[in-house]
């Protein structure tokens, strides 16, 4: 059986850790859409050992904090669905009041047209967001 998150990175690689990776997902309308992908193939969060659960959520938090500190989003959405791809991954999505779906989930129906100016502003801040993310993730994995 093939698994897209075992066979491919699943997006643009931002950070490769020992047990997880962070990718930027190319999702139209949501420029600040990241995924923390557990490296080994497990379907459910509860399959991780206790220390792995902590590490996974620390990584999610590092991504969340980097997005909050650099983009000042209205809300961060965290989600682990895995109905389409049953390989553990957390979605970390910065949401803005003007985005096409707010306040609905990104997977729901659009509420309004996309805002090109918002998307451009957010996209322009992604390098800073990712630099902050990488620094936090490196500190997480290599505490000095
Ligand atoms: Zn897999």
TrEMBL record:
PROSITE patterns given in the database record: HIT_2
> Motif Histidine triad motif: residue span?
87-91
For molecular function, the Gene Ontology terms on record are: catalytic activity
In this chain the HIT domain maps to: 36-102
**Organism placement in taxonomy:** Bacteria, Pseudomonadati, Pseudomonadota, Betaproteobacteria, Burkholderiales
Q: Name one Pfam family in it.
A: HIT
Which protein are we looking at?
HIT family protein
Judging by the UniProt lineage, the source's domain of life is Bacteria
């Amino acid at each position: 059986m093939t698994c897209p998150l075992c066979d491919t990175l699943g997006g643009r690689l931002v950070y490769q850790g020992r047990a997880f990776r962070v990718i930027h997902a190319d999702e139209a309308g949501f420029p600040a859409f990241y995924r923390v992908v557990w490296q080994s193939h497990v379907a459910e969060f509860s399959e991780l050992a206790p220390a792995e659960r902590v590490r996974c959520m620390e990584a999610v938090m590092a991504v969340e904090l980097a997005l909050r500190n650099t983009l000042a989003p209205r809300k961060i959405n965290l989600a682990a669905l895995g109905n389409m791809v049953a390989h553990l991954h957390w979605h970390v999505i910065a949401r803005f009041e003007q985005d096409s779906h707010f306040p609905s989930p990104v997977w729901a129906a659009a509420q309004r047209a996309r805002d090109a100016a918002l998307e451009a502003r957010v996209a322009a801040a992604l390098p800073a967001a990712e630099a902050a993310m990488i620094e936090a993730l490196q500190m997480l994995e290599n505490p000095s």
